[in-house]
Design goal:
This protein has helices spanning 26-45, 126-131; strands at 6-12, 49-59, 68-78, 82-92, 102-114. It is an alpha+beta fold and 134 residues long. The protein is elongated. The relative contact order is 0.25. The structure holds coenzyme A. Residues 3-118 form the HotDog ACOT-type domain.
Length: 134
């Protein structure tokens, strides 16, 4: 397994992304996780990927408006057509008392499948697997 974890996506949580309680909506976080994982999976496949499964999603702490949210992706397995990615989400707080404090807020494991232009699964080349460390 290639032992690297990269920031795949980094953005600021905005007021438009809140739930009725005023914290950031879980669905928004899930959507960003999917995007972050897909960026990493596409790099491995060197082509189009679709999400086939989202597993082990854990919301550990809330995300607040103004937090700088970083999504760290790590490739954990490459199969015949699939790529498994772990995504860890870290929120950098922005309130005066907690300014700059980084907190692990969410994690998930997602699986993507390499597909052709018609959406049919296709094998990941040996060359691309090797490049990803598998
Ligand atoms: C992706 C798709 C083409 C795969 O076709 P399929 O015939 O169902 O594929 P398979 O069942 O053979 O699974 C393909 C790979 O995914 C893996 N997989 C299937 N179900 C899985 C699950 N629940 N969890 C993890 N991996 C899974 C298989 O093990 C296989 O991996 P491998 O080739 O590396 O061994 C098809 O399921 C599909 O179009 N799904 C909809 C995708 C989509 O719209 N996503 C949302 C928007 S991106």
């Amino acid at each position: 397994m290639k032992d690297y974890k990269e920031v795949s996506l980094r953005l600021v949580a905005m007021p438009s992304d809140t739930n009725p309680a005023g914290n950031i909506f879980g669905g928004w976080i899930m959507s960003q996780i999917d995007l972050a994982g897909s960026v990493a999976a596409k790099e491995v496949a060197n082509g189009r990927v679709v999400t086939i499964a989202v597993d082990k999603m854990t919301f550990k702490k809330p995300v607040f408006v103004g937090d700088i949210v970083s999504f760290y992706a790590k490739i954990i397995n490459v199969g015949t057509t699939s790529i498994q990615v772990s995504v860890e989400v870290v929120a950098e707080r922005c309130t005066p008392k907690l300014y700059g404090v980084c907190t692990d807020v969410t994690s998930a494991v997602l699986t993507y499948v390499n597909v052709d232009e018609n959406g049919n699964k296709i094998p990941i080349s040996e060359e691309n697997k090797k490049r990803a460390g598998f």
